[in-house]
Design goal:
Radius of gyration: 20 Å
CATH class of the largest domain: Alpha Beta
Strand content: 15-25%
Distance between the termini: 32 Å
């Protein structure tokens, strides 16, 4: 039986829903806004988090309010299908289809949480999986001044958290001195070339010499999202293909199958898959084809982070999950944050990481 089949038949009663806005300044230099979806029914509440990146889309959602008719007695599978058939955006989203996937996942995850709570069961019990400690990395982009990356804040963070590992965005501002300092730290598990972003603040040029220099400097790191379509990049990274992994292009099984070569590892990011059935199919596909998986976050501010950590604990606990506790995303991470691996702490019922 497939993973989704274990969940789709769960009974679900929805009586109302509410929208909760969240906002915070995070470490990548932008003001993050998300919306928590609260589904109510049968004396229980289910939560999910809308991680759409554009504030305008959240503002429009809040202005419209909970206007969708989601009430009724059904099953989880039928409710998710109903959500898929609705337009969840009062106005056209800024980023188009990817934002629709993010919002769809918010409603699906809230429904999963509510169905499990109404059943009085935790997710791992229904799936028959044992929650395990979650290995995580902290995703960061080094601050830059006068065209030079500053490694000092990262090294200071390592002093406070000696076992912390990183997923970093290399940029042309990485000097030889910067690279040498990062290599000496021994803390870089993966580098994200951001080769599939266009028209964003994290766009990165695809230059063969730069790619080659990074790949050779970090021979044990995963190389995420190179732009292999750019001139000279495929040739530059051909000796390192066994370390190339993918994140931004992966929204479905079809996207995995469309990659230029079979991957050893991909990021199965729940919100990016955009729906419970598609996500479960992705997990099953990777397991059947011997493809490793790791999870990723979207700068969640609410329950979405814990839900992604819970899924990681069930499906890929020991890989470099980009799911550090939210405190690591602050401009000044506080003392006392958990170290990797995170102890498994599923809630007694529902689809949540216990507080």
């Amino acid at each position: 039986m497939g993973t989704y089949d274990l969940l789709a038949g769960l009974p679900l009663v929805v009586e109302s829903y509410a929208l909760e806005p969240l906002v915070m300044d995070v470490s990548s230099g932008f003001r993050r806004q998300t919306t928590v979806i609260h589904l109510h029914g049968g004396g229980e509440e289910g939560v999910g988090e809308d991680v759409v990146y554009d504030a305008e889309d959240h503002d429009a959602l809040q202005a419209a309010g909970p206007v969708l008719d989601l009430t009724g007695q059904t099953t989880l599978g039928d409710f998710c299908a109903r959500i898929d058939a609705l337009d969840l955006f009062p106005v056209e989203p800024v980023r188009g289809e990817v934002s629709r996937l993010y919002r769809r996942w918010a409603f699906h995850s809230a429904a999963l949480d509510l169905a499990l709570r109404q059943a009085g069961k935790p997710l791992h019990a229904v799936l028959g999986r044992e929650p395990r400690p979650v290995t995580f990395v902290n995703s960061r982009r080094l601050p830059e001044q006068d065209g030079v990356a500053d490694v000092a804040p990262l090294l200071a963070l390592i002093e406070r958290y000696p076992t912390l590992r990183f997923k970093l965005d290399p940029t042309p501002a990485w000097s030889e001195q910067t690279i040498a300092a990062l290599v000496a730290s021994g803390a870089v598990d993966s580098v994200d070339f951001k080769g599939h972003y266009r028209g964003t603040v994290v766009d990165n040029p695809a230059e063969p010499g730069f790619y080659r220099r990074i790949a050779e400097a970090f021979p044990d790191a995963w190389l995420e999202d190179p732009d292999l379509s750019a001139d000279g990049i495929d040739e530059a990274l051909r000796p390192h293909r066994d370390r190339i992994t993918w994140d931004a292009p992966i929204h479905s099984i079809a996207d995995i199958e469309a990659l230029p070569f079979a991957p050893r590892m991909v990021n199965v990011k729940p919100s990016r898959f955009g729906g419970l059935e598609r996500l479960c199919a992705g997990y099953d596909y990777c397991a059947q084809h011997g493809i490793g998986a790791y999870g990723g976050g979207q700068f969640e501010l609410g329950p979405g982070r814990g839900q992604a950590q819970l899924l990681a604990s069930l499906f890929h606990p020991g890989t470099p999950n980009d799911l550090a506790p939210g405190g690591y995303n602050l401009n000044e991470p506080p003392d006392g944050l958990p170290a990797s691996p995170l102890a498994a702490r599923p809630s007694a019922t529902g689809f949540r990481w216990a507080e």
